[in-house]
């Protein structure tokens, strides 16, 4: 018997790798020869779906130079061109041997992108600018699925189209696509006023929505609903004025990185969460490992601006609060004494032997009294069992919260007055809140946008962001009453408001004040509020000294000060620390009459307004900094944790 | 809870409200775009890296296949050699066995002859004829 030896194949694919086929089309180049054989072999590309033959032969003087002994080297170049189905293919490049058999000389992967949805507008024009109010038509084709609904979009317009129009030309061009013969469309109506390049947007039978640009631009200036004076080609007026925040720089690295767990009573969509997130980001930047556990709605983490810490639910924190170093938390920072926070902190403290620090930001008992509608004295008389039934998980239990504070290792407070609730001798530090410097910085009024709102001449814009709940309902009513009084007195004032109304605080006032209020509802991302705040001339924090206000720090105040406008506020909490006439406009009581008088005074004295705007920025720069607050907090942790 | 955004009292206020909310929506969409653009680039990069890795593994597999083919050929050659050697060994072993049998036979003959010689020399006649062999000049 005579043995047949196959010649050795030499070859390479020279198309840059990784091989990609946009829209299914592939074009490959390479070379291949069989050692000692006179003619270069035929080449083909074999995939699981399709086999593509060699498209052309190319001369390869370079290969001949490299392999002078090979007779076929000079003509061994080839190209392969064709179409492949979408997907990732394992491609075998094979050469035909003199005996007729095929043998692989190379294997590669090819990623083939699906043939995209394509649409052409060709009636009455296929490219250029159309200015006439006519009906238009074209075709739209997706290789995988028929079109079910189609609209043309241009400028601010959306025009519906009738489908299922015959297109023999398209069918001839795409014979393999069954739905190609009836892929034509025409607009339901004549074009209406609008300017801009035309896009075809379609909903397909398989549920996808696809968009295709066209080569046509519509420039229709007017129709029966648009006055010729309405300029549809004007540039968009935006809120942003182009001013940018200063880069914050890098914080000092931590000497002893800690595992830190913050426990919040609510979700990430709360003011408390903004404070925790700002501190957590700073602590992470300094080298600590930080996780933040929320009671519910963990997905609200997406509301925060680029969080660098780990977001958890209470359940996740209870089951696995493990950090990268496989240890548990060194510090548990219970954000308030709310029941759901206290319970989790107690469980984790015993398991991880962590230091527990409690943060106070409100007069918790006053909030309980306001929320339940029962005076403090009455609550104090209730039995433990009655209190257990009455106090929900997201409020503080009058007795258990005291025990929690006694047992904890340290306390942080948002303002000094809250130290009254800290057990004697307990380590305590004040954490001054701040504004997110990435969004809240001095911003000029976006004059063009303000003008586009067409305010009445001399209008003063006030801005208030925040929810209305039982605790602040009365003072918010005062703010609205001030707005109404000012307008009635001939001083046009508009209040722009964001946030939710959790109680009906306006009652009969609602109808009267409505023309002077723009309620925007909930703005999900706090950073988006900053450009809206810039619309304001004056910021007002309503309220008066009382058991609620004396023990809290309205978290919007640092944001008011950072934007750079006069701030009117009552002589309570921060109002006791600012200088009237220099840093802010301080009222003994920021009630309707006081607010109205202050607004009038500021509008009547532009120099005072300018001075207070500058004073607000100066005060913010001096007193509000998350970087400084985080450094204070890290030092506090250091004093409480064993080294 | 009251609705998120109250219906403005007049059309101008509605327009103002919608204008501001449109700005908010634009900011949200800009955030989405700014988040998706790097993500798309990252995924494209990941796909390219995965494909490059797969191609490298295919090259390695092809190389290993070639090594396997060569090794198989070498193995087959060694097996043939081993078979040939085994055959020769069998022949050699048979020859050795035959030779050893011959040696054994010859040894037996030698032993037998030695015994016969010893018996002869121990016989009375050998002893009695010793003087004769002495006369002949031969040692006993």
Describe the protein.
The complex is a heterodimer of chains A (about 650) and B (about 140). With about 650 residues, chain A is of the alpha/beta class. Chain A has four domains: about 100 residues, Sandwich (Immunoglobulin-like); about 100 residues, Immunoglobulin-like (Sandwich), CATH 2.60.40.10; about 170 residues, Rossmann fold; about 180 residues, Rossmann fold. Chain A is built from 17 helices and 30 strands. In chain A, the strands form five sheets. Chain A has an eight-stranded mixed beta sheet with strand order 10-12-15-14-13-16-17-11, with no helix packed on it. In chain A, helix 14 packs across helix 16. Chain B has about 140 residues and is mostly helical. Chain B has one domain. Chain B has three helices and no strands. The interface between A and B is medium-sized, with 36 and 32 residues.
Major sheet attributes of chain A: 8 strands, mixed
Oligomer: heterodimer
CATH superfamily of the largest domain in chain A: Glycogen Phosphorylase B
What is the terminal-to-terminal distance of chain B? 144 Å
Helical residue percent of chain A? 25-40%
Question: TL;DR of this structure?
Answer:
The complex is a heterodimer of chains A (643) and B (140). Chain A has 643 residues and is of the alpha/beta class.
């Amino acid at each position: 018997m005579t043995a047949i030896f196959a010649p050795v194949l030499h070859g390479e694919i020279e198309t840059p790798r990784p091989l990609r086929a946009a829209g299914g089309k592939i074009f490959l180049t390479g070379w291949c020869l069989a050692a000692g054989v006179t003619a270069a072999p035929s080449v083909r590309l074999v995939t699981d779906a399709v086999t593509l033959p060699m498209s052309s032969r190319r001369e390869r003087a370079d290969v001949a130079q490299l392999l002078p002994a090979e007779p076929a080297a000079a003509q061994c170049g080839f190209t392969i061109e064709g179409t492949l189905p979408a997907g990732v293919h394992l491609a075998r490049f094979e050469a035909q041997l003199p005996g007729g058999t095929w043998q692989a000389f190379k294997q590669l992967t090819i990623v083939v992108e699906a043939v995209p949805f394509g649409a052409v507008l060709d009636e009455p024009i296929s490219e250029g600018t159309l200015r006439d109010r006519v009906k238009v038509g074209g075709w739209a084709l997706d290789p995988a699925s028929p079109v079910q609904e189609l609209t043309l979009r241009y400028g601010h317009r959306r025009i519906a189209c009738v489908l299922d129009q015959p297109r023999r030309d398209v069918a001839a061009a795409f014979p393999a696509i069954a739905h190609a013969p009836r892929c034509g469309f025409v607009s339901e109506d004549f074009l209406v006023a609008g300017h801009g390049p035309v896009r075809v947007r379609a909903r397909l039978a398989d549920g996808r929505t696809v968009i295709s640009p066209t080569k046509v631009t519509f420039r229709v200036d007017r129709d029966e609903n648009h006055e010729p004076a309405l300029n549809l080609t004007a540039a968009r007026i935006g809120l942003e004025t182009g001013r940018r925040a200063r880069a914050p720089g890098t914080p000092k690295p931590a000497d002893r990185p800690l595992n830190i767990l913050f426990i919040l009573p609510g979700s990430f969509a709360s003011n408390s969460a903004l404070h925790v997130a700002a501190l957590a980001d700073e602590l992470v930047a300094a080298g600590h490992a930080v996780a933040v556990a929320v009671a519910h709605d963990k997905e609200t983490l997406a509301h925060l601006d680029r969080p660098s810490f780990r977001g958890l639910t209470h359940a996740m924190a209870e089951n696995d609060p493990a950090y990268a170093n496989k240890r548990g938390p060194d510090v548990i920072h219970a954000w308030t004494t709310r029941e759901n926070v206290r319970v989790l902190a107690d469980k984790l403290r015993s398991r991880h032997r962590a230091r527990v620090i409690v943060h106070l930001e409100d007069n918790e008992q006053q909030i309980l009294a306001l929320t339940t509608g029962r005076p403090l004295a009455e609550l104090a008389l209730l039995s433990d069992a009655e209190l257990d039934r009455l106090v929900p998980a997201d409020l503080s239990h009058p007795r258990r919260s005291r025990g929690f504070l006694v047992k904890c290792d340290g306390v942080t407070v948002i303002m000094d007055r809250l130290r009254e609730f800290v057990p004697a001798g307990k380590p305590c530090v004040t954490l001054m809140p701040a504004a997110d410097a990435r969004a809240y910085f001095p911003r000029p009024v976006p004059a063009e946008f303000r003008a586009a709102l067409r305010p009445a001449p001399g209008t003063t814009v006030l801005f208030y962001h925040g929810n209305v709940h039982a605790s602040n309902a009365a003072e918010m009513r005062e703010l609205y009453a001030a707005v109404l009084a000012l307008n009635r007195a001939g001083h046009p004032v508009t209040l722009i408001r964001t946030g939710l109304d959790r109680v009906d605080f306006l009652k009969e006032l609602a109808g009267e004040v409505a023309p002077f209020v723009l309620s925007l509802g909930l703005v999900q991302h706090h950073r988006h509020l900053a450009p809206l705040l810039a619309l304001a001339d004056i910021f007002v924090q309503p309220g008066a000294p009382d058991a609620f206000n004396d023990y809290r720090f309205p978290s919007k105040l640092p944001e008011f000060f950072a934007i750079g406008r006069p701030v009117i506020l009552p002589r309570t909490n921060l109002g006791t620390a600012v200088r009237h006439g220099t840093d802010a406009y301080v009222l003994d009581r920021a009630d309707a009459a006081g607010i109205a008088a202050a607004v009038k005074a500021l509008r009547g004295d532009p120099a005072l307004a300018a001075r207070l705007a500058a004073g607000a920025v100066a005060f913010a720069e001096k007193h509000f900094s998350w970087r400084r607050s985080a450094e204070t907090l890290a030092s506090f942790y250091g004093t409480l944790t064993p080294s | 809870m009251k609705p998120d955004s109250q219906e403005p009292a007049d059309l101008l206020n509605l327009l103002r409200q919608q204008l501001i909310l449109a700005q908010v929506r634009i900011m949200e969409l800009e955030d989405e775009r700014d988040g998706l653009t790097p993500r798309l680039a990252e995924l494209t990069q990941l796909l390219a890296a995965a494909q490059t890795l797969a191609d490298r593994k295919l090259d390695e597999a092809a190389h290993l296949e070639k090594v396997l083919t060569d090794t198989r050929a070498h193995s087959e050659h060694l097996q043939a050699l081993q078979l040939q050697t085994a055959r020769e060994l069998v022949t050699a072993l048979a020859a050795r066995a035959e030779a050893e049998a011959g040696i054994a036979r010859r040894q037996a003959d030698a032993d037998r002859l030695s015994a016969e010689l010893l018996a002869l020399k121990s016989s009375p006649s050998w002893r009695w004829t010793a003087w004769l062999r002495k006369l002949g000049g031969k040692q006993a």
